[in-house]
Amino acid sequence: MPLPLATAVVVLDTGTRRGLVDSAYNERRSQCEEAAKHFGVKALRDVSSVQLAARAAELDSTTLRRARHVVSENERTLAAAEVMQRGDAQALGRLMDQSHESLRHDFEVTSDALNAVVECARSTSGCFGARMTGAGFGGCAVALVAEDRAEDFVRQVTARYADATNLEAHAYLCRPAAGARIVS
Fold it and tell me: Are 3 and 9 in contact, with CB atoms under 8 Å apart?
């Protein structure tokens, strides 16, 4: 899928390493498998948000939150493909923001540093949206930024993040380009 025109992606490394413990990953996987089993499907990709809402009371609160994240993230991913085809940077940014909030509150895989860098990004002019990326519990976030504001965005976000956390973020400005192709 193409990124909306005149946008860039900024990778924001929080300067923290993942505290991902195998047990936390395995716990979330188990909770999602339990929810899928409850719905009689192989994977939560086969459950819609309407189905989940209709039977939410049948799940314990933690399993419900985990399932809600997976189901809503799948729906956001499909929506993101549509808005990218339309070139709608605003809508794509909103989906990224929603994804981060779901990862934070429902899947509980963010960290203080990730939340801080995402908030710094969102509060900086030119940012359409931001979210953590990767396995969580530390590491990196990504932001969708207006290309003409990207270099200023990087300077402002890294300074704000340092002020907020006393940590040094590293930012990597990425611009979309044509994919791999045969060169003759």
Answer: yes
